[in-house]
Amino acid sequence: MKLRFWGVRGSINSPLSPENYLSKIKGVLEQAVKEGISEKTDLDHFIAQLPGELKTTFGGNTSCVTISDDRDLLIFDAGTGIRNLGSQLISGNFFNPEIDEYNLIFSHLHLDHINGLPFFTPVHFPGKKIRFFSHHENFEKMLMLQQNSDFFPVSLESRPSNKEFNVLKEGHDFSIGNFVVRSKKLNHPNSSYSYSVEKDGKKIVYATDAEYTANSVLDNYADFYRNADILIFDSQYNFNELAQRYSFGHSTAEIGVDAAVSANVKKLLLFHHNHESSDRKIIEMKNSSIKYLNEKHPGSDLDIIISNEGMEFNL
User: Fold this and answer.
1) Into which CATH architecture does domain 2-13+57-314 fall?
2) CA dihedral for 151, 152, 158, 161, sign (positive or negative)
3) N or C: which end of the chain has fewer CB within 10 A?
4) Residue-range domain boundaries for the chain
């Protein structure tokens, strides 16, 4: 199965500002001067050696992640990242262009997880079928309300795609094609839900928007995350930010480390980056989590990775 990230930010989308762009350009030029780059042939090597915060941007779109095989597409959340996904689906550049049915599964209904839906191109095409899934009983009404004429020029119900709305129950496993999907409630205002997706002995867990205590992440969630090949984990804050934003419903990379190690996870994907965090700060948070891992769990082979728009994994 293939995992791909289309949006990795939290709370609100955060496009790269002109000031941030110029700061990156300045940093690149300073590195070029320092290394004495004078020939065009040196550029590829030079770019490869740049610090991460200068070589890339982790992206500014909000939550949207896909898991797919040759026959079925699972879309987790409809943040602003789903706009680009929709364009790629319609153009045939992603997924199987012969299949016109997609499955959209919501962790919860906060704006940063639904406000890309009006711009998800397949919704506007006849012949396309969108199967919506959520644990929130009123979610069809909420999605319709977002496109009420007071807020948006075209209603969701007026769109010509075939739409099916399914209310989920926690603890009730369900299947989509060859994928087995399980869910578990998270600690987040108005409730968020994590999802475990399994196929052919491989397991991916999508666990965004959750606040834990050091004990609760081990006592209540270790079994659900157990033996995951990939754990996508809310790491929006560092510890200082978390202390100032108690009850906001988010977590840290270090808590993710404890959860991953206790559950024998192979890869920890840091996700739902704070919209206020620069690329450099996100890298610093990863480095802090690696230091924490080495100090608290010496010998662990956990792989810690920053989720990035466009990043893909094949399992």
Assistant:
1) 4-Layer Sandwich (3.60)
2) negative
3) C
4) 2-13+57-314, 18-55
